[in-house]
Amino acid sequence: MPVLAAPPRSVLDSLLNSGVTRRRFLEFCTATTAVLALPIKFAPQIAQALETAEKPTVIWLEFQDCAGNTESFLRARAPGVGDILLDVLDVEYHETIMAAAGDQAEAAKEAAIAKGGHIVIVEGSVPTAANGVYCTIGGKTAVQILAEATMGAAAVINTGTCSSYGGIPAASPNPTGATSVPDLVSGVPVINLPGCPVNVDNVVATIVHYLTFGALPAVDGHGRPLFAYGERIHDHCERRAHFDAGQFVEEWGDEAHRKGWCLYNMGCKGPSTFHNCPTQRWNGGTSWPIGAGHGCVGCSEPDFWDTMTPIYGRLPAPPGFGVTTSVDKIGAGIVGLTAAGFAAHGIAKTVQRKRAERANETPIEIETTAAPGEEGAER
Ligand code: SF4
């Protein structure tokens, strides 16, 4: 007697079967609407879409990575997006968390690929030097695995900076030839969710956007969704009032540090980094690096390891600025460079408005010093 395949379950069915109440489901839809920076009127549309959408099949690939994005994926607030995410998705292959191993695991992946229309989530960069020998799984190189997994896929979501831009493995001198996924994949919609690690809320929001609207969210010039990377960390930082007042931490543990003043002089890269860390935060929204007393390291920017270091060095003046300039002008200058690449001009307009508002304020004049290790460094 033939074995009938189980009918595909909708996202809502799956959630209700796993004990998530309808009230919690609607809260989830409302919260995700907020993460997507959509007006609240879209919450019912998202709820309606998830009620009928089939659970998407996911193949999660790990290459040259630290597994930090998987850690982030698993450590979401509970009960919350993490729990729901595991119910929203059919994760057919994930080397770190799947029960199957060896041939059984590879067979699961191949079966998912054969069906097509799946989502590929990638963590880690892809080594291309020496014919890809630096990362092989099941006898195949990462290059081969990526090519096979993305064939017939509906979308590729890069989690973390390594798969998005190469990350630390691609930092100079890049001995393994680490390459980003967008540089290797074509013919499939690709979106980047950089960060060390990715914020799982942004992963969920991206997938929910795809299920609701049938397309990936609008992106900036670096392939990042505008809802999560459209604004500077500096513009939503809780220490911004101290920056504006010229109140800066000068040494770790000094009085200013204990008071929660601005970390710019300690190397904070918030003025040149685009991410929703200040508003979305981490660990269930409890805190984030700057909230915990450490400056932003700029991890969601392309080539951050080569361009944002030394980590504790002050941001250098960008080309065109004099030796003495205002910190805000430095930030605005970098914003201008990034905003030029925006695919949607709405955010650029917001940046322009913010710059215009700032132009009416009296800037704080701060002498720019070279970063440690550079000529003229003070620290
Ligand atoms: S420089 Fe850093 S700590 Fe200071 S306000 Fe900007 S983002 Fe916040």
Defining key terms:
single chain, about 375 residues, alpha/beta, Rossmann fold, Cytochrome-c3 Hydrogenase, Chain A, domain 2, 2 domains, two-stranded antiparallel sheet, globular, disordered N terminus, binds iron/sulfur cluster
Characterise this structure.
There is one protein chain. Helix content is 36%, strand content 10%. With 379 residues, it is of the alpha/beta class. The chain has two domains: 11-229, NADH:ubiquinone oxidoreductase-like, 20kDa subunit (Rossmann fold); 233-367, Irregular (Cytochrome-c3 Hydrogenase, Chain A, domain 2). The strands form four sheets. A five-stranded parallel β-sheet has the order 2-1-3-7-9, sandwiched between helices. A two-stranded antiparallel sheet has the order 4-8. The protein has a two-stranded antiparallel ribbon with strand order 5-6. It is globular and about 60 Å long. The protein starts with 10 loop residues before the first helix and ends in a 12-residue tail after the last strand. The structure holds iron/sulfur cluster. Iron/sulfur cluster binds next to α11.
List strands and helices in order, with pairings:
Elements lengths: L10 H7 L4 H14 L7 H10 L4 E6 L5 H7 L6 H8 L1 E5 L7 H14 L3 E5 L2 E2 L8 E2 L2 E2 H9 L4 E5 L1 H5 L12 E2 L10 E4 L6 H14 L12 H4 L10 H5 L10 H5 L17 H4 L23 H4 L16 E3 H13 L5 H15 L5 E3 L12
Parallel strand pairs: 1-2, 1-3, 3-7, 7-9
Antiparallel strand pairs: 4-8, 5-6, 10-11
Helix pairs in contact: 2-3, 3-9, 15-16
The structure holds iron/sulfur cluster.
The site of iron/sulfur cluster has 15 residues, from helix 11.
